[in-house]
């Protein structure tokens, strides 16, 4: 799933390529991806892209005051084309194309989604806050207001595992399964540690790991190619069975119903592999 660094890379790319261009046409190939009807998607035609921003994992194009908001979900992506095909798209079928945006100079982009489980969502709204997911977002970890003191307040008193807290978009916006693994590895912290049990030093280490991990990922994310770059820059996530680049121990995995997490026992759990995923105990 594209997370904060990849969506930020897409926003930065579109600021350079799309801002100042008018929307010539929008083709909707997957009607299920369009979550709003007022204003209609056709209202964007003839209007100019004035800015591109990010809200957590949501991409927001301001088109003369009407916002085209996109959530790429688990397997969606934005594919830029210098010359967009002019032929009309055909709805339905197994085509991964969901929405195609034509700009007035012939360029544009496709919103695509692989796999059979579809979750990509497109909203056309007058205010981004009309999108429920945006209205419920917690603070952005790259915002100046996300200070160490603010993070202490977020963590303090929460009787939840730190892995789940980092992924909760209502608590902190933009971090998902991938970068929560990376952040916890950088902070040398067990994913099952209870948030309220963190010492002041651990809170500081986790706060610094969030900022460093996300900023480094943003810097190495080159626009639409960020999806591929994401995989090459990861240290533990998706690397089960490989060597930890820090200590050389074997990266291990805990599987859940619809996801999994990866971690290094030496760096994060005192050398002991995590046991049953439901009990969250350490093997003795």
TrEMBL record:
Catalytic activity: Hydrolysis of DNA containing ring-opened 7-methylguanine residues, releasing 2,6-diamino-4-hydroxy-5-(N-methyl)formamidopyrimidine
One GO MF term attached to the UniProt entry: class I DNA-(apurinic or apyrimidinic site) endonuclease activity
The keyword DNA-binding appears for this protein: yes
Domain of life of the native organism: Bacteria
Cofactor dependency: Zn(2+)
Pfam families for the chain: Fapy_DNA_glyco, H2TH, zf-FPG_IleRS
Protein name: Formamidopyrimidine-DNA glycosylase
Lineage of origin: Bacteria, Bacillati, Actinomycetota, Actinomycetes, Streptosporangiales
